[in-house]
Amino acid sequence: MKKFIISIAAVIMAVSAVSAQQIQNLPNDPATKVGVLDNGMTYYIRHNDKPAQRAEFYLATNVGAIQEAPDQDGLAHFLEHMCFNGTKNFPGKGIINYLESIGASFGGNVNASTGIEQTIYMLTNIPLVRPSVVDSCILIMHDYSHFVLCEDSEIDAERGVIIEEKRSRNVAGWRNYMEMKKYLFRGTPYESVSLIGSQEQLETFNPQSLRNFYHTWYVPCNQALIVVGDIDVAETEAKIKNIFADIPAAENPKQKDVIVVPDNQEPIIGIITDEESTSSEIEVVWKSEAMPEAYNSTPIRLMTDIIKSIITISMNERLNDISSKPGAPFMNASFGFGKLIETMEGTMVSASDKAENILTAFEAVLTEAERLKRYGLSDDEINRAKTEILSQYETAANKADTRKNPEFVQPMIQNFFNNVSFMDPAMQYQLVQMIMQQVSPAVVNQVTPGVITKENMVVIYTGPEKEGVAVPTEEAILGIIGKVENSEIERGAVEAVPEAFLDPAALKGAKIKKSADSYYGSTKLTLANGAEVILLPTDYEKDKVMIQIMKKGGRSLIADEDIYSFDQSVWGAYTGFTGVGQFSQTTMSKMLSGKQVSVQPYINGYTHGLTANSTTKDLETAFQLLYLSYTQPRFDADEFNQGYKQIEAILPQFVEQSSYKLQQEVTKTLYNSPRRTLISQEVLDKASLATIERVVTKQLFNDAAGMKVVIAGDFDKDAVIPMVEKYIGSIKKGKKASDWKFCNDGFVDGKIINEFRTKMTAPKVTVIQLLKTDKPYSTEADVAYSALSYILDMVYVATLREEEGGTYGAS
Question: Nearest-CA neighbor of 144 among 65, 77, 78, 86?
Fold first, then answer.
């Protein structure tokens, strides 16, 4: 499975004119203090005061469920729970009690996650209400690392909680994943690792098995401590060295097994069905060996990531083009690369459609993969992708000084687990610019043949298990693989992409009639067309500008008979697939290559309008798209039908799910109003694009009367005002502003109890209680109820979860 790695490495050596021995490691961000304690534990410390008086504390442990012995099935995850149930310095529920005392919450700020290969403990957004909080949080991580008590009584008390977590996880997506592992990792322990364990194991395992796992694998050389926040780096380093000094280095620590997935010459075919699956999907994975960790901190890794990103962007562009056309062979499809386990990566392509069409969809995406293998990518595709990637790195560099604490953590974790360098974003952008000069179309197309291989191919179908729903056979899948491999495939056509959305000179605009200072240092402008605009320049987040256009009304203006077309799912089908003006969604996407801009219409209960996000340099493009979205919304039947058919395909299975039936009963019980829609065949039958077009253009997005616009972010006011005058000012002036109204679709009155039963694959009970007050809204009441919610959550954790062991979570 080395072919893809070798081909990329060979290309990099060739274009760089260097040998493997000459390749230098990339520098980590020098503002992060990285060190190793005498006992072998790694630590990362970074000062960042965004937000002020807050910090993140992580313990990354490079072990997971794959390290479990036969008697320890599910115990890597069980151990994670025990870290909250008694340690040397925080017995009983001491950790939770202490953190709640400083304003942190269990689940909200205190959590952990166990994977197949790694386990991470996290204290996030911790309020540093006094200097000793840093010491206490480091002490908590110290106890996680080496001093979890794992007492028999606490283990027994936690069994019920994890059994309930197992019950809550037992849904179609989880069951499908557990089956998929048997095909992806065939011939290795990965195919049978369960992560949470069987119910019998959870009920009966010997507590000593849990303690054995902890003391075998939780050793300093497998762990890294990460502290990021409004802290003093030198003081924090001294505290870490002092607090962790009593943890000794492990003597002869057990080494993790290196597990390699065997090659397969013939395709491995998996057919997975589940009675709760809502859609039919087919995925192809071409396995390849993971890049050696020694390369992960070198330019080889960075260039590999860039080439993979170019291929990913270009292939998804092709697949989107296909799916947007009438009679498309699949509803949606995607292409990408991913690391599946420590020793294996994969090239992946997937498609979804109605069950009866899934083989057609499979043939179509496999044909596109084969086209990539034979012909590579066009110069235009590669150059668009390069432009987009460069723009993303440039934006990251521009935003670097205003990054929030969580943005620093994941790169440090990846550095510890996989030796992936974490560079200063400005330096990384400079390096990427240099690399891009070497990544020509010829270089990319030297690599593409190795992306798709005849060997190491795994094909997995997942779909509903239901009478009348077609399920493909292994023979049919193999037949299509052979057909595509032996077919004649033409090179892809090249599309001419327009350069501009509109001619700004053609817009008349409107001058500012009034300007005044407003809240928080903002400026309020009133345009001649009646629009009111608030400008708030701020350096809270660099290179980001947010715009919101708002008018009163929203769904409250939509007639009862039209409301079905604005059901959340139907409206999403429209906004998710439509373009703007004369430009289709796929064309618009290509035109936006290299521009970090998004514009989205919204219709809430009582307001409607548009939201936009943009970098500073792309702000005029955002204004142009806002203007076009408001004045020239697009109503293309083919684009709408693409989303409509996706709903139609999954709806028969979706409405049979117990979660849907619960939501259906909740909606009916709480509101009892036809205006409170939940997607159904009746809603779908009554929805229409013609209705959306009429309501949007005639009622909601028709003029500037009553329009409020807020523009906040990293911009120069003098540079933005001309854009406001031109683009917002060119929206026609209206006569009367819209207003919201109450449509008698709020919570019903009276005491109502609705108990219902429905068939479930994994039986469980959900209880929802709603208490309604007629008191008017006030800020004081809002704060009081938030405090009450926080207190009740603590009570539920202490009683329902910890004392009763009766639920995984209540809130």
Answer: 86
